[in-house]
Every structure is written in C-alpha cells, then in structure tokens.
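Now for one specimen:
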Amino acid sequence: MLPVLADSVRLDEDGVHILDRRQFPFRREWVLCKTVEEVADAISGMVTQSSGPYFAALGGMVLAARAAAGLLPAEARAHLEAAGARLIATRTTNNHLRKAVACVLDAVAGRDDVVAAAGEGARRGDELYRARSRALGSHAAELLPGDGVVLTHCWADLYLVELVLAARRAGKEPAFVCTETRPYLQGARLTAATLAEMDVDTTVITDGMGAAELASGRIDALVTAADRVTMDGHVVNKIGTLGLAVAASAFGVPFHALVQAPDQATATGTDVPIEYRDGAEVLTVLGQPTTSGRIRGRYPAFDVTPPRFVTTVVTDRGPFAPDRLGEYYAEGEPNQ
C-alpha cells in the first residue's frame, strides 16, 4: 500500500479535493476546490507542494472544462487556455504545471466534448507521471549501495516513494537522513513522516547540520528531487540544495538529482524564473513567530546548483552526467 501523500489530490463530481500539506502529518484535512481560481489559490498558498500542484492542475483543468461546457469550440478553447495560464502562473519555477496544462489542452484539441476529453487528458497525465516516477525510482535505486545512508533535502514525493520501493525490490535497505527544510518543514513533516510510514530507518536534522553530516563520512549519497533541470545541467530545487551540493562535492559524496526529464525550453540556470515568496514566511515556524521587532525576512524559494556540483541527473530514461543531458532526447520527445 502506498503512503498517504502518494495520493493527495482527488477529482470527483464535487471538485478537486487536496490534502492540506500545511497541516500534515498532525491533521489530515482536505481542501475542496470547486473552481480553477480556488485550485490556483491552493497551489500558491502551499496547500499542496512538490508533485501535488501537478495533479491539482490536472484536476483544475477538468473544472475549467466543466465550466466551458456548452460554449462554442473556439470559446471553450480560449477558456481552457486562460485557465491553464492562471495555473501555470501560481508557481513558475517548477515546470510540471506547464506539463499538466499541456496534457489536458492536447487532449481537448479538435474535440467538441471538452469535458470528456479533459477528463481523459487528466487521467492520462496522472498515469504518465506515476509511470515515469516508477522508472526514475528504479534508475535511482541502482546508484545506491545496499545498506547505505542517504541525505535528502525537502520532499521528493513520488520520486522518493518509488526510489524506496525499487531499492527494496533490489534487496537494498537504505537509511535516510532528512533536513527539516525551513520554513515549511517539508523534510520533517512530509519526507520523514512518509519514510516512517514506509518503515524506513529515518533521522531528521536541522538545515544547518547538513554540511557536518556530509563531512562525517556517514553519508553515502545526497539525493534530492529537482523542480527543473536545464539542458546544461543546472539543478533548480528547494532553497538550501546548493549549499548541500557544494558540501557534498567538497567531501566526496555524490549528488544525484531526480527529475523526469531535463527541460528543453531552458538552456541554463539564468533562464529559470526563481520564485520569491513573502519574506514574512521565514519569520515563523508552523504559524509561531521566531523573532520580534522591525525585522525583514527574505525568502527565495529555490536555488540553482551549477553542474560542477552535480554528479548525476537521474531521469525516467536513466542516469546522465550533467554535461550529457542532450542525450536524453536521442530517443525523441517523451510523453508529457
């Protein structure tokens, strides 16, 4: 049985139900979104994170199709495109939202029955993402020692779940050390909780402990997801990844970044829009203030790791050195 967060977005006749990751694992509350705007607000408000926005966007596009039922084909298409643009704009660093929207738009192209077509596109997008995550997890598991220790940062979601499952199929039982990942504590609340749910040996450390762990000789690999990987091998991921990657390089620990595919539309790191969230978010933890007085916060949500600090980019088509990512497309374009 898959862990709870592997199925945290559900579409039904009422709307899109999203498990509130801001409350997890202490409470399991679902947020019901009945419109595209409500889905967009849930994504930008961090109700869902990691791969959650991808699945939420698929559902949001179905809601848009339902709202467009009865419109002329051209009007329905324009309505769906506007809905897609709204969803993509919620969090621009990760390109999964763009892929989710494209999956549904491709499905409705030339179809009069936009609701049925959008539903088919959303189901296909869901199945493809899960299948590609399974392939990616299998390739990543091959890079790990049998009983090694893996350092993670933030939440790799289905990538991490599939990595653990693939490792076990191969007779491997890696232990994990998870950074807490301020300010939303995804590492402590999401990663560690899910690994514990899967009965994995799990340790949580503060963000400031990562370099010391890498220097200790106890860590066999640094493994994170990537919100985007550029064609020249820059890895864009949760803020803090860069510091860990630099430390891993300094102490001879390989850094494996997991992403389904490098982004052909992004040549290098400077081409990626970095999301800056409200600085006030770093002045609290789980709603509790951590400081007082006239103090400003600064919160770039992502950082960019240059390819010289990246050992391997693991994709659904296998592992690649960061300077050989162009070979990923030798087999042609993947599905969405």
Remarks:
- The CA atoms of residues 62 and 119 lie 6 Å apart.
- The chain has a mean pLDDT of 96.
- The chain has nine helices and 17 strands.
